Amino acid sequence: MDFSIAVIILFGLAGDYIFKKIKLPGLVGMLLVGIIAGPYVMGLLKPEMMDVSGDFRKIALIVILLRAGFELRRDTLNRVGKTALLMSGVPAMFEIAGIMLVAPPLLGLSLLDSAILGAILGAVSPAVVVPLMIDFMDRGRGAKKGIPTLILAASSIDDVFVIVLFTIFLGMYGGGDVNVWAKLGEIPVSITLGILIGLIPGYILWRLFEKYDWRPPKRTLIVLGVSIVLTWIEKKLEGTVPIASLLGVMAIGFIILEKSEPIAHIMSQKLKKLWVFAELLLFVLVGAQVNIHVAWDAGFAGSIVILAGLVFRSIGTYISLIGTPFTMKEKIFCIISYIPKATVQAAIGAVPLAYGVASGDLILAVAVLSILLTAPLGAIGIMIMGEKVLDYGEKSPYKFKDLRQKLELPRVGERVRDRRDGTLWKVIEEREFWLEGSEGVAVPAIELRLWNEQRSTSQGKGDTQYITFTPSSQPFSTEWEIIYDW
Predict the structure, then answer these.
(1) Which domain holds residue 283?
(2) Beta bridge pairs of residue 480
(3) Are residues 225 and 369 in the same domain?
(4) What is the pLDDT of residue 353?
(5) 415-418 and 480-483 as β-strands: parallel, antiparallel, unpaired?
(6) CA 379 to chain centroid
(7) Are residues 92 and 199 in the same domain?
(8) DSSP conformational letter for 125
(9) Is there a single domain that holds both residue 319 and residue 415?
(10) What crossing angle do the helices spanning 261-288 and 180-211 adopt, rounded to 10°?
(11) Which letter does DSSP use for residue 181 in this model?
(12) Residue 114 pLDDT more than 60?
């Protein structure tokens, strides 16, 4: 397994570098590296690595969904909530209907087999979409209308909806008694329980982090560990109680952000560093799941079915966006963002074959082909269209985030030591404002108020000082050191 991890790191980084050099998303390079290094082409990734591939991919997905939760502001969610709800179900239903229409004549599938295929293809890939949306949000792109947040939230619920439909259709094939309404009722139950099992531990963790001044890496690892436990709970209760644990993972980040923005942002930055390795694992291993020989069997007809499904899906996405303040270009961006397929298709594409569905081999072939066609093209389309379409105001609040990250500034509540005389201080206030820079261009500035713990008896009274930081300032660590209990 050690050699396999070396292959993932070295070749994955090389693929990322090459594709970024030619102005294409690095994740496309990682996916291709996974396909080539995987067991179906060169076989560089050993069988034991593929055996634990699912666990590694899940942990990587947890990392990016935690980051997503730390970016989900309540005001933005309120603004896009209704639209996100529509986009979590309507596009998938349109795609399933479209595939049920074209798959019987083109592939010779029965109507039920076509519905099973449609449910597999109907899920958008959070593994591809969420990292790209997080990147836009990090850079303040689309912040004004909340478009990346909309797509991020909707794509996460979309998977829950589609997998329930897949279960219903597969149950019908088995000839057993399937209570369709009970299965559909699992959708809101799964979403509600998923959010609930995230909010409760998220609140408890926030209280712990407020009480104890632990180092950010340790806080981040604790949150990561709790998130992994949530996915374990979902697996243990599978078939008994439906729980969308990945929504719970996002809910942990959301509640910590709501209660303490400083703590949330610090952990988000630590996760951003961890994501460098998690990203390699996720995309290379997703690519390694792709059997290009099976995809080849789907042929031209399979490609047409996938394309037809995407056309219907695009219509459903457009309908979901009616009544929003989005421009036509912004709506097209949302449509393109709903194209990539990878995670769910790799996870459940082979289930019908194992279940004994007569057309299971053909369904698997089309599912694999959909990953090959839509993951790279969708990612490229999102990157190119997003840079052209998403707004980025001159006074974007995200510029303060960039400044804070660049200078490694502490947050309110953190204790710092003056390297010059060794005195201890506590950050008790911060203020973000704009300064008039050269050529009349506004630059972000952050003012911190520090209180001397050693020379004062009451917080905020006695010895305090104000320090202002701008893009031209030296990093905070030049003259100060942040202090932690553990």
Answers:
(1) 2-389
(2) 418
(3) yes
(4) 79
(5) antiparallel
(6) 13
(7) yes
(8) -
(9) no
(10) 130
(11) H
(12) yes
